[in-house]
Amino acid sequence: MDKKILIVLGVIVYALTTFASYSFFSAQTSTKKVSYDVPTGGNTTDEDGAPKTEPCPLNGKLYSEAQKAKWESRRPLAIMVQNNVEARPQSGLSSADVVHEVVAEGGITRFLTLFYCENPEIVGSVRSARMYFIQLLQGFGENPLYAHVGGANTPGPADALGEIKDLGWYQNNDLDQFAVPFPNYWRDYDRLPGRATEHTVYTNTEKLWAFAAKNRDLTNVDKDGVEWTEDWEPWTFKGDAKVEERGTVAKINFGFWDGSLGSDYVVEWKYDKITNTYLRSNGGKPHIDFNTDKQLSSRNVVVAFADESTANDGYEHGQHLLYDVIGKGDAIVFQNGFAIEGTWKKPKEVDMMRFYDADGAEIELVAGKIWIEILPEGNKVDF
């Protein structure tokens, strides 16, 4: 009997020491506390007065320990948001950690918005998937969540829904509105009256994270216990430059397509040297978030040039587009009032798009919001 007791006690001690060891090493590999330089007028504490010491893994922005505890239980969530004139002002763009903007069709751009460290109550309007957005999203860890309303599905190189199935995302980390029931998505015809029906779908990040956890066994780990950060390497970040060391590039202007719709999608980012932020205008007007009634802003504006082509897949309502976002191309990184001309590289789908200066050194991004503007090769950027 005594021998059995000793064996049981040994097993218990082993389990406890194993758990303690795991906890210790997990703590060592977690994101370290960082104290970046805070721009003039910035807040060093959150709304509850807790110090902001915890960098968001996606963009380096600082949050409190309580906020970090929330994001550590989930994985990145990408939501397709429409930029049709009828869909403006959109909801939730100001809360995204990272935003990619690319033309979806007919010169009309769309946003791949990534949420992880913030959770806005409303995001939208939500639209359909495209192949190149999927490829961009693949760089954000193991099985990121992807929220959209259907997608390009004509057989051929632009078949986004076919790609989702081929990747094994279908009924896993894919959150297509057609497979995810109300109230995770809903239509709101009164939010912006007079719009076409396709611009009325909205969602909530907390609902989607909860749905993924309950129905897909996807939290910060999958059903096999694999962390979403497995083999994922984030960008590197730095604090704001001191005011006297900031540059003088005051405005960034560019368009996506020429033609009758072009003026509605011309973008201007105006640099505010004091706050070290870029303020966005779209179609000649300040671009406002419906949730906050404030103009969209970013710490970093990255312009990446990629080859644009048509899929020629017989789509009867126009042309599905392709953007070659795998490989490399020219890029301009705007930060701290400077324009850094260089290149982008994304060797494989599962790699992040990274940015390099003229000497080939990877560019550190300024901790804070990141906007990546993908333009057709040959487009002009004025700054």
From TrEMBL:
InterPro entries attached to this UniProt entry: DUF3048_C (IPR035328), DUF3048_N (IPR021416), YerB-like_sf (IPR023158)
Pfam families, alphabetized: DUF3048 (PF11258), DUF3048_C (PF17479)
Domain DUF3048: 69-215, 265-372
SUPFAM superfamilies the UniProt entry points to: YerB-like
Gene3D superfamilies documented for this protein: YerB-like
Record protein name field: DUF3048 domain-containing protein
Species assigned in the record: Candidatus Roizmanbacteria bacterium CG_4_9_14_0_2_um_filter_39_13
